[in-house]
Amino acid sequence: MGLTGQSSGISLLNNKFNITKKSDEQIVIALAGNPNTGKSTLFNHLTGLNQHTGNWPGKTVCNAQGTFKYKDKDYLLVDLPGTYSILANSVEEEIARDFICFGNPDITIVITDSTCLERNLNLVLQITEITDNVVLCLNLMDEAKRKGIDIDIKKLEKSLGIPVIPTVARDGKGVNDLLFTIHNIVEGISKPTPYKMTYDDSIEALVKEIEDNLSGLLDESLNSRWITLRLIDGDKSILKSIKEILNSPSYEEREV
Amino acid sequence: MENCTEKSINDIEKIISEKLEQNASFGDKIVSKIYEKAEQIANDVVKINDTRKINWDKKLDDILTSRITGYPIMLLMLCLIFWITIQGANYPSALLANLLFGLEEKISSLFVFLNSPEWLHGILVLGIYRTLAWVVSVMLPPMAIFFPLFTLLEDLGYLPRVAFNLDNMFRKSGTHGKQALTMSMGFGCNAAGIIACRIIDSPRERLIAIITNNFVPCNGRFPTLIAIAMIFIGVFISKEYSSLAASLAVVLIVLIGIYFTLLISKLLSKTVLKGIPSSFTLELPPYRKPQIGKVIVRSIFDRTLFVLGRAILIAAPAGAITWIVANTTIGDVSILNHVAGFLNPFAKLMGLDGFILMAFILGLPANEIVLPILIMSYLSKGAMLEFESIDSLRQLLVNNGWTWVTGLNVMLFSLLHFPCGTTLLTIKKETNSIKWTVFTFVLTTSIAVLVTFAVNTIATLLGWV
């Protein structure tokens, strides 16, 4: 059963997200971040591909994928559209959200613009609500430095509970540290324990009630708390996505 | 099993809708909690110690997006890019033409030496080789200069400022401001521009952006426009100012394209695609120092050689076919002349001729090959020509009755006519509708016919032709 589960996981990736995973061993990494923070630049740097990069927000509108090898491991990197949030206010946000939530990437890199960290952190906090294996890539450190912005990396790591790697993706600075960090997570040497948002008591009570109803329904790999929160949020598209996933042939096969 | 999940999901929906009735602000509370936390962490870890006295980004933005200086600078930039392209392309174009056509003579004598049949020499040398030589010598130099320049502007962060400047005009046309961005993408490739329309959420506004994207000239059409401006519009002005006149002509064509984008968008949003524009926030990214070396290498490999490769791939068979069609006769007249003769009366109304119209129709797979096919058709009429310089191309066109009005009409038709095959397929894919694909085809072509007809009529009435 375990085998079918895994292979159906691949076909789910394939059916819904158009992602072709070569083998079960390949590690899937999602690359998320605000628009114009250098996702495609980092993507090109890691994969050696030439996704068109350009200095304007919203350039990547569909998932681009590429592969790379690091320390004898095969990686599949998925470049998600740039978004400010994943609360699904737009198509890009829905694509990014669905992939992180239902595509089950092994690791998610959130790439942020160091010159406006606060706005970027909104997305980081939303993503760490869905999945634990998140690495924060603090990009554009050269611009931050020029603007006299100083970021306490250690403190940030502690507040968020995830690894934080400063980079200048254009010059490839810090990319090796990033890869090493990812490698350590894959090997189980380190394990991110992200800070989890807690909300008002009234919300938390409602979350509990709905989560109990929901938990029997969903595959354990899905984050029921996060889905519950989105439902409370009044997000209709998440129900649509859940129904889609539940009804997809690969998923039913798994349930049989 | 399916029913069971449907049922539980419905149950959950019910619980939530009950709760939300009691307290509707859950969503806001969740979001503001996340924002609070982000702010708290950021305040905790970020120290700003800005020692710079002047904020250059802001200063630049004030100038580049100001109501007064924004548009003039945009026009100036556009003009400058085309001027550098045209000025710079002149010499290498002539050099390449000399080289390649000199080589043609050598190849021809080799064919004679080997005693090969006339038709083989015709198809291979007069058909394929000569078309390729034209594609390379006319298109390569402008592309190799234009694309890096355009990519530099993109890398620098100027494109979003252009979008910002144009946003207001698009809103007045009843469409989405992001259309300014998808339009800018269209300058690279209309198919890419149409895919970029996915960033527009409202289906109505997206459709408008898709339908009108073709009105900005793409990679494939810029070389044609630049070449015609260079060899035709430019030379009618005194030599010193010819590059300037040619670049102004291309800028004018681009502006006409933008004008039609706005006009048709407005017409569509007032008629078949009614609605009010939705609002959005456009973020102006920081200016970034472009990586000049990388930009040049990338734009030459990714764009110039890509477009050239595609052009060659399509131009080679097209050249062979054109030669065959031009040299196969029915009665005493070649098939080529039959078709051109058939199209001629209609084409004349638009200030074109049968050969030009036929080249546009044969150029449906890719706009890049319109000019080479046209040249081939003219050459096959028997008027042999000494290929001494790029200027001989102008002579060829003049011999075939071209005036500057013909040049202008060809540029206008190229700008406004039906999208290329790839773009049409992309429209079909993105809209998922044959109806809208056909609609775009008919709409653009009708506009091209109407505009060239109007220009030609006015020019005739004024006695310019």
The CATH class name of the largest domain in chain A reads Alpha Beta
CATH architecture of the largest domain in chain A: 3-Layer(aba) Sandwich
CA radius of gyration of chain A is 18 Å
Beta-strand residue fraction of chain A: 15-25%
Classify the helix fraction of chain B into a percent range.
over 70%
Question: What best-fitting shape of chain A do the alpha-carbon axes yield?
Answer: globular
Low-confidence stretches of chain B: none
Ends distance of chain B: 77 Å
Largest sheet of chain B: 2 strands, antiparallel
Q: H/E series of chain A, N to C?
A: HEHEEHEHEHEHEHHHHH
Rounded mean pLDDT score of chain B: 82
Overall morphology of chain B: globular
Quick structural gist:
Chain A has two domains: 10-186, Rossmann fold; 201-253.
Write the layout of secondary structure elements.
The complex is a heterodimer of chains A (256) and B (465).
Chain A: H1 2-17, E1 27-33, H2 39-47, E2 64-70, E3 73-79, H3 91-102, E4 107-113, H4 117-130, E5 134-139, H5 141-146, E6 149-151, H6 153-160, E7 164-166, H7 175-186, H8 201-215, H9 224-232, H10 236-247, H11 249-255
Parallel strand pairs in A: 1-3, 1-4, 4-5, 5-7
Antiparallel strand pairs in A: 2-3
Helix pairs in contact in A: 1-11, 8-9
Chain B: H1 2-22, H2 26-45, E1 46-48, H3 56-64, H4 70-113, H5 118-156, H6 158-172, H7 179-186, H8 190-196, H9 203-212, H10 222-233, H11 242-270, H12 292-327, E2 329-330, E3 333-334, H13 335-349, H14 354-362, H15 370-380, H16 391-399, H17 404-416, H18 421-431, H19 434-461
Antiparallel strand pairs in B: 2-3
Helix pairs in contact in B: 4-5, 4-11, 5-10, 5-12, 5-15, 6-7, 7-8, 8-18, 9-11, 10-11, 10-17, 11-17, 12-15, 13-14, 14-15, 17-19, 18-19
